[in-house]
Design brief:
2 strands, mainly alpha, 5 helices, about 5% strand
Length: about 100
């Protein structure tokens, strides 16, 4: 059974990400939210997928909804990095999966 960390590390305190993540893990708050709310999966399924306590999944969801401005900024930074990578010729995951050149 996974042990609860009890803490979300804000992006500005993180040595591994520039966005909030679950303490002691590399999974970000936004990754959890995208899997629970974006992919319509339950918190238990996401917890099992990442060997997390369900409580940590709920902590990530709570953090996301308690910090909307910070999470909007995270999404903006991601979009900017993706656009920059595309300008340099990087493929999207869909293009890679589909075998597009």
């Amino acid at each position: 059974m996974a042990q609860a960390t009890g803490r979300i590390v804000p992006g500005e305190e993180s040595a591994i990400h520039d966005e909030p993540h679950i303490e002691g893990r590399r999974i970000t708050v936004l990754q959890v939210v995208e899997r629970v709310e974006g992919a319509d999966r339950g918190p238990k399924a996401v917890a099992d997928e990442y060997d997390l306590p369900v409580a940590d999944v709920y902590r990530a969801l709570t953090y996301y909804h308690d910090h909307p401005d910070e999470m909007d900024a995270v999404r903006d930074r991601r979009r900017e990095r993706e656009a920059s990578a595309r300008e340099r010729g990087a493929k999207t995951l869909d293009e890679i999966r589909d075998g597009r050149e």
